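Box 3.1 A note on notation
Throughout this textbook, protein chains are presented in two layers. The first layer is the amino acid sequence; the second is a token string describing backbone geometry. Keep the layers aligned when reading.
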Amino acid sequence: MKTETVGWGIMGTAQIARKNWRSIRNSGNGTVVAVASRDRERSRQFIRECQAEAPMETAPAALGGYEEMLASKAIEAVYIPLPTALRKEWVLRAAAAGKHVLCEKPCAICAADLREMVEACRRQNVQFMDGVMFMHSRRLERLREMCEDADGIGQIRRIVSGFSYCAGPEFFAGNIRGDSALEPHGCVGDLGWYCIRLALWAMKWQMPRQVSGRVLSEYGRGGKSAPVPTEFSAELVFDGGVSAGFYCSFVAENQQWAAIGGARGYLRLEDFVLPFTGKEIFFEVRRAEFRVRGGDFEMIPRVRRVAVEEPSHGSPQAQESNLFRNFSRLVRSGRVDPLWPDISLKTQQVMDACLESAARDGRAVVMT
């Protein structure tokens, strides 16, 4: 009989895997059984450092190959933070081995690859999910209420977001996100994925009918590989006249704001991806009042702050812990939730369309 605790394998030693080691530990229903890299000593070093910071009850095994991880009967789910160019191969192999898959984003090079990946998981009856943490925050529930409540913002008309950080020279010189052979989508895959996901969430997973995108700046590593987008903007048009726009960048300072505008007001978040440090996270509902009295024009702010008691990070109640807790619950339930692979595929399809439009000098791509 299986225990409530799900045995996890971490496939790769990327920086985000260090954060999610702690997330698995904090979930309360998961534990890291093994860590694999192509170099066993790198796995050992990763485990030593993570154990020192957030120890598992039993130290995980250090493996020197991903095949060894997939052969382990103690591992039920794998977390795959490998570079995007490598994800398809190992998702397919993990599914064939009967492992549930939590895959970092962007999930694949293209939607056709991702469709193959999620179909492989479906055939093997294993769960597929991507690593968008804000989808597991309790704040999202309150946002939905304010989108639908009579005292909220009214019918949605416009969604905008921006996600960026200003990377230094060392980033472009050595980080894989500047290497198109490993991460061909640049800032669009790394940051734009979140903006697209938020827009689709706000629209209850309705797909846009038309998409346009533009590369505003790009970087190529000395002619050794094709350039990757480092600054990008896009527009999505939905049926019913609703539109969404986003900006993502490796060359603008930290920002991760979003606004959802409606017929009666708008929601504003300054930290929609990574919550600002604190014991609660919040957003604002804004419904400004405009008054005219003769020649006196007056704009009166009407701002309602809506807070959710949820730690920003590093806690069993934080969104990253919720992600792994929710995933492990699905594993234990024995029921695959088709929503998660479906929204990953929709996000990928929109991202692909944005990049296709940019390659066509911004001409709109009609989604079919």
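The mean pLDDT is 96. The chain has two domains: 6-134+319-340, 137-306+347-366.
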